[in-house]
Write a structure and sequence with these properties.
By secondary structure, the protein is mainly β. The protein has 2 domains: 9-92, Pnp Oxidase, Chain A; 99-222, predicted glycosyltransferase like domains (Thrombin, subunit H, Beta Barrel), CATH 2.40.10. It has helices at 111-119, 127-130, 203-222; strands at 9-13, 19-27, 31-35, 51-58, 61-72, 79-92, 99-108, 135-142, 146-151, 160-167, 170-185, 190-198.
Length: 223
């Protein structure tokens, strides 16, 4: 269990897809111990014999796995010993790691709005201002470098867009360029699918996107 690090962070996933944040306190070749310090929203106490899903991050990797509670430790905070680590899945934390989803997205291809946004320094202050120019669409996959979405508007490859979506209720507004286009014709409508690449993503936002992707992956491993 080299992917587990003493004093490293661990995320425990409940059956309700809530996440509890803990700390690995000890380990050996067969088991590990962890605690869930502090008051956390919807804190759930684990029982001996209970299976749980967890995720740890190491370097540029995320490791998802399942384990079983073997003992509740008598310390000042909820703490446990776990064994039978299984279903280990290692995922590289790369920009091109994609995960399928079905999330709300808004966009505009209005050249005036896109060009104006590029020239604004404090972009966080205009999220609500540009909302009236945005058209609703559906995001169908996401990576730290871009997304794929579908809408009913016919746009050309190479067109620059301004896209808006939310991560953990935080509004995200980004410039992007259409790199791929697909068309599907149905009896009653035509749907357009676009693969877009983000522009000028800060390192902080990129890390936030990667973490959001692993949240989506974690939920999907439960299904």
């Amino acid at each position: 269990m080299d992917f587990l690090t003493i004093n490293g962070k661990i995320e425990i996933c409940t059956d309700e897809d809530e996440v509890q944040y803990g700390l690995i306190t000890d380990k050996d070749n067969q088991s590990f111990q962890f605690s869930l310090p502090g008051k956390q929203k919807n804190m759930k106490l684990l029982s001996v014999g209970e299976n749980f899903r967890a995720i740890v991050y190491t370097n540029r990797k995320a490791v998802l796995f399942t384990a079983t509670v073997s003992e509740r430790l008598k310390v000042g905070v909820p703490a446990y010993k776990a064994n039978d680590v299984r279903n280990i899945k290692v995922i590289q934390r790369r920009n091109n790691v994609r995960v399928s989803c079905c999330l709300d997205l808004k966009y505009t291809a209005n050249r005036f709005v896109v060009d104006s946004y590029r020239k604004i320094n404090n972009k966080e202050d205009i999220v609500e201002t540009v909302d009236k120019y945005l058209t609703e669409a559906t995001m169908i996959d996401i990576s730290a470098g871009g997304i794929k979405f579908t809408c009913s508007e016919d746009l050309e490859e190479g067109r620059r867009l301004l896209v808006s979506f939310a991560i953990e209720e935080d509004p995200i507004l980004l410039l992007a360029e259409i790199r791929h286009k697909e068309i599907t014709v149905y009896p009653t409508e035509t749907k357009y699918y676009y693969g877009i690449k983000f522009e000028d993503v800060t390192e902080k936002l990129q890390e936030k996107l990667i973490n959001h992707i692993f949240v989506l992956m974690r939920k999907q491993t439960r299904r």
